[in-house]
Structures are given as structure tokens and as C-alpha cells.
Amino acid sequence: MLLLSIDTSGSYSCICLIGENCDIVAENNIVLNEKKHFKELNNEQLIPSTLIFKQLDGILSGTGLNLTDIGGMAVTLGPGSFTGIRVSLSIAKTLAYSLNLKISGVESLYACAYSFINKSNNFYLTVIKEFIKDKFYFEIYKIENGTMTKFKNLDTGNINEIICSIVQLNIKSDFVFLGSYNKYKLNENLQLFNNSGIKIDIFDNLRLAYLSGIIAINKFVNNKQEQSAFQDAAGLSPVYVYNSGAF
User: Positive or negative, the Cα torsion across 204, 216, 21, 19?
Assistant: First the structure.
């Protein structure tokens, strides 16, 4: 099955075509956080929605494929860019409806944690992503013998609050940071983690579209009894965080 995966939850607009053997058939990534790219996009009078269609048209024409060759879809639900997620989810739903495709929504922090699923037999992983000012999104996962479960649901807090959460849960955790919007901010955050005594891995945002696609493929292939759930795009919604929590 050829699967199309879209991610605009961070600083990139990424689309990826994934083949039956989980290989990347084609991909297109555009950085959205640098002024030169905004200038280029403004000159072409592109808005996020038309940008994704332009990227999709480019990889299809470059591979000689058509929309009808796509057998399923994955889309990153966030948390992340409010506008980016809404745009990509709307496009993914429209394509799923019009082409009668199975579709799977994947949380960005989950996809990041999934890349560590075979790292070792038993450990906890705290995934951290930029939120606002000095606060971060974070979730904690338990990875054990090639399986992964969410140990603490999505929350927000500063570095000290994240550390306190881990202490209260009475666990030891590894850490991974889901990128930054620019190099300056990345270095600033890394210094913040270092000053707090946190040894942290850096996750490449460009991998989110691919990993979301792999997660979707595994759902479609390994959970055939649940495939009908993935055919209903209406149930997909962005992951946001408000005072009452994530939804």
C-alpha cells in the first residue's frame, strides 16, 4: 500500500510517500521558520493550504504517480502550530473523503517517542516540545520489550515543573527534545536543559511525517479488526492544550 503522510505541526511543511516495504518513495520538505522562505512563499502568493498541494503535485509528478495510487493517509495532529495543524488536517480529511482512503491521526510527541521503541528493553522517555515562553509540552512514555504505552498524558510546564512531575512519579527517565523553530532558540533551550542537569537527545522534526506514516501502516496492517475506525476522518481533531488539559 502506498501511504501519504503529512506533517505541519512544527517548523516544516513535510509530505512523504511511503511504500509497502516502509521505504520512502518520495518526500518534500519546506522550512517555514526562516525569513528567506517566507519571502519566497510571499512572492509566489502561497498560503499553507496551496503550499501542501504544490508539494504533493511535485512528488507525484516526479514519481509518475497519481492520487488514485495512494491507499491510505497519515496526518500529524499536534500539539504544535495551530494554523499548520488545522490546514494539514483539513486537507487530509478532504483527500480521505474524496478518494475513500483509510486515514490515521498521529500525535507528534507519540511519533517522536516511537522512534526510540527499540532502543532498550525497559525505560521511561519524556518527550519535550516548545510551547510558549519558558513552558514546554511534555509527555512520558514507558517503553518495554518493543512496546510503548503513555505513562503520563500531555501536559505543559517549565523545566522545574517537568522535573517535579518525574520526581512525583518516582521514576528515572530519559529525555528527548522535539526540535526548535531556529538554531538560536535550539541552543538557548539546550543550555536551559544543561543548566537543569538534563541530558537530552535532539529529535529531527523532518522525521515526523515518515514516522507518523509508519505508525499508520502498522495500524492498518496489524489491526485489521479496527480498520473501520481509521476510515472515519470526521473523528480526527487537532491536539491542543488549554487550562483544562489536552483534547
Answer: negative
Alpha-carbon distance 239 to 247, whole Å? Answer: 6
Angle in degrees, CA 109, 111, 116, rounded to 5: 100
Fold match, 3-107+206-246 / 116-202: yes
The class (CATH top level) of 3-107+206-246 is alpha beta
Q: For cell 521514576, what's the residue?
A: 171
Dihedral through CA 227, CA 110, CA 206, CA 132, nearest 10?
A: 130
Instruction: Report if pTM > 0.85.
Output: yes
Residues 182-228: tens digit of each pLDDT:
778 889 999 999 999 999 999 988 999 999 999 999 888 876 544 44
Question: Over the stretch 87-114, which tens digit does the pLDDT of each residue have?
Answer: 999 999 999 999 999 999 999 999 999 9
Q: Give DSSP secondary structure letters for 110-166.
A: HHHHHTTTTS-SEEEEEEEEE-STT-EEEEEEEEETTEEEEEEEEEEE-HHHHHHHH
